[in-house]
C-alpha cells in the first residue's frame, strides 16, 4: 500500500490553531488586567459639577429656595448673566449693599422718590421701567434670592480623553467588542482551513487505497427545466403580472401623499420644548385656527413676547443631538430676523424675512376649515397633526388623503355639549337613524359638496 503523505496534517493544524487561539485570548485578557486602576474606568474619575462649595456672599440664605423664588418673581425681567428688561443679577451682592438691595426689592419706587443716587441712576439707565414692589418678601426670602445670585456660574466639565473608548468597550473584563469579533473571525477562518485540509487528506487516502471517487454527472440546468415546463411558466407569468399591477397601483396611489414629510426650517423650532416641556397651547401661537380657515404662520412678534427675556435655554434642555449652544444660536437667528439687540434691549429696525417651509398642504380642490374643526367640533390638534408635543422637528404625521378624512367622519361623533348650532338637526336625525349620538357622516359629513364645491 502506498504511504499517504501528510496523513496527520489535519490534526496538526487543529492543534496549532487551538494553541494560537488560547495564546491570543490569554494575551488580550492579560493586557486588560494590567490596565492601571486610575485608568480602568475613566467615567469614575470625571469630576462632576461641584455643588455646595460656593458660599453665599450674603453670609446666609438657601440658594435652592432662592432659585425657586427667582424663577417665579424675578426671571420675567432679570437674567443672571445678561441684560434683559433689568440688569444682570449674578454677583449683585458684591456691587450693592445688602440693606440697600432689600429696600430696592421691597419698593424701588419709594427709593427713587427719596432721591437715592444709585436708585435714580438705575431707573434712568433701564429706560425708566418701574420695577414692581415685593413687600410680601421677608428678610429670609430676600437672603435666599441673594444667595442664589451669589453662586458662581457652573462651567460644564470637559470630557476626558478615553471616556468614549471606555464606553464603547463591552463584555466581561472590559474586552473590546472588536477584539472578540476578531477572535471569532480568526476561529472561523481556521475551521475553514481545517475542513479543506481534512477533505484533501481524505481524498489522498482514498486514492492511495484504490477507492474510486464518485464523478459528478452532468445535469440539466434548472432554468432549462423550468422553460420546458409550460405549466410553471404560465403560473409564474400570471403571478408576475399580478404583482406588477399591484405595485404599479400602490405607486400611483402615493402620488401627492407627503406623510412623513419633514423639511428643515430656516430657524429650528422645537415643538417638543414649546408644546411639550413648557406646555404652551397650540392656539396660543396658531391663534387664527380658532376663527379662520387656516391655522396661519405665527408672527415673529408672538415669539418675541417670550424671547425678549429668554435669550438662552437652560442647561437641562440640551440633548445628545442638540446642544445648548445649538439652541442659543437659533434664538440669535430669531433676534436677527426681527432686528432685536439683546444688549440694548431695543429694536434696531433692521429686519430679515424668514422663509418658513410649509409642511401640511391640501390640494386646491379640497376645502378644509380649521375653525369648524377646532372650535365647533372641539377636535384636538393632535388628532390630525399627531403627537406634536413630542416632535423635535415638525413633520406630517397623517396621510391627509380623502379616505383618511372620510373614515374620521364615519367614526367621530358630533359633540353636542354647549353647541346650540346642532341641537335641532341632531334631534331630527337621531329619530331618523334611531341612535342617541350621530357621527359626522350621518349629519352629511361625507357628501361631496362638503369638501369639493
TrEMBL record:
<feature type="transmembrane region" description="Helical">
    <location>
        <begin position="179"/>
        <end position="198"/>
    </location>
</feature>
<feature type="domain" description="Cytochrome c">
    <location>
        <begin position="61"/>
        <end position="153"/>
    </location>
</feature>
<keyword id="KW-0408">Iron</keyword>
<dbReference type="InterPro" id="IPR020942">
    <property type="entry name" value="Cyt_c_III_dom"/>
</dbReference>
<feature type="signal peptide">
    <location>
        <begin position="1"/>
        <end position="30"/>
    </location>
</feature>
<dbReference type="InterPro" id="IPR036280">
    <property type="entry name" value="Multihaem_cyt_sf"/>
</dbReference>
<keyword id="KW-1133">Transmembrane helix</keyword>
<keyword id="KW-0813">Transport</keyword>
<dbReference type="GO" id="GO:0020037">
    <property type="term" value="F:heme binding"/>
</dbReference>
<protein>
    <submittedName>
        <fullName>C-type cytochrome</fullName>
    </submittedName>
</protein>
<keyword id="KW-0732">Signal</keyword>
<keyword id="KW-0249">Electron transport</keyword>
<keyword id="KW-0479">Metal-binding</keyword>
<feature type="region of interest" description="Disordered">
    <location>
        <begin position="38"/>
        <end position="60"/>
    </location>
</feature>
<dbReference type="GO" id="GO:0009055">
    <property type="term" value="F:electron transfer activity"/>
</dbReference>
<feature type="transmembrane region" description="Helical">
    <location>
        <begin position="231"/>
        <end position="252"/>
    </location>
</feature>
<keyword id="KW-0349">Heme</keyword>
<dbReference type="Pfam" id="PF02085">
    <property type="entry name" value="Cytochrom_CIII"/>
</dbReference>
<keyword id="KW-0812">Transmembrane</keyword>
<keyword id="KW-0472">Membrane</keyword>
<dbReference type="InterPro" id="IPR009056">
    <property type="entry name" value="Cyt_c-like_dom"/>
</dbReference>
<dbReference type="GO" id="GO:0046872">
    <property type="term" value="F:metal ion binding"/>
</dbReference>
<dbReference type="Pfam" id="PF00034">
    <property type="entry name" value="Cytochrom_C"/>
</dbReference>
<dbReference type="InterPro" id="IPR036909">
    <property type="entry name" value="Cyt_c-like_dom_sf"/>
</dbReference>
